[in-house]
Amino acid sequence: MVTLRSSREIQQMRKAGLVVWRAHQLAAEKVRPGATTAEIDAAIERYFQQCGAVPLFKGVPGKVPFPAVTCISVNEEVVHGIPSARALKEGDVVSIDTGCKLAGWCGDSAVTHGVGRISPEAQRLLDVTRGVLELAIDLMGKKSRWTEVAREMATFVRDAGFSVVENFVGHGIGQQMHEEPQVPNFVSPHFRRNSDFRLEPGLVIAVEPMVNMGTKKTKAMPDHWTQSTGDGLPSAHFEHTIAMMEEGPWVLTGPPTEKELAEMPK
Questions:
Q1: Sheet holding 227-229, edge to edge
Q2: CATH at 35
Q3: What are the pLDDT digits (tens) for 131-164?
Q4: Is residue 1 included in any domain, yes or no?
Q5: 2 lies in a domain?
Q6: Is 0.85 surpassed by the pTM of this model?
Q7: What would the pLDDT profile of 236-248 be if each residue is shown by its tens digit?
Q8: Cβ–Cβ under 8 Å, residues 19 and 100
Q9: Which entry of 73, 74, 159, 232 is 20 to 30 Å from 35 by CA?
């Protein structure tokens, strides 16, 4: 069952989304050669504490409970990378995924950065992945069902010569990080038959394309969390929490208005 949210509830989710937006600004300031992924994670954790926000990722159950407030995945790591003493290097690409709950409502977003000067092909990977998320947001205001959006997303990525990760998909979000529906970035017969959903006011979803430079296949690493590309080539990941309103899609983890910015914790 997809739960549709009221305008008041979506306004509450926007507050969580703004905290996540600001956390990403803090992270971006720290992405540089020599910085460790643990340092970036610690900065976001301090900011969440300052805001009275509860991290969504830390303690998520698994063979090993997830130990950090961010997933930080470098180069061939697709998603769920664990922050560590690993230092970033010139030419790396680093995906930072984080989320929080504020006053009972969730926000979730991801951004991939280049570290210093990156190769032209790596830059194109980032541009295409950011572009396919922007395409999805635009199409959400023009299409009636998610499969119509997902089909164009997959075509956009494949036309660029890259591959869409199919092992991991987006999700509904509200009072919990993961709610119905599942939100794939591709169309399959199973999804088209069993899991399609309407793009209607009150729907709130986290759209998160993951795009690989080479194969779409992924493999689990020994830490029980990190997922890497099957061929060792780089991956990129962008995500926003998006609400469908009467007037169209609203990116809840997008930049603040001047009024919102003035009211946010510094």
A1: 77-79, 227-229, 218-220
A2: 3.90.230.10
A3: 999 999 999 999 999 999 999 999 999 999 999 9
A4: no
A5: no
A6: yes
A7: 999 999 999 999 9
A8: yes
A9: 232
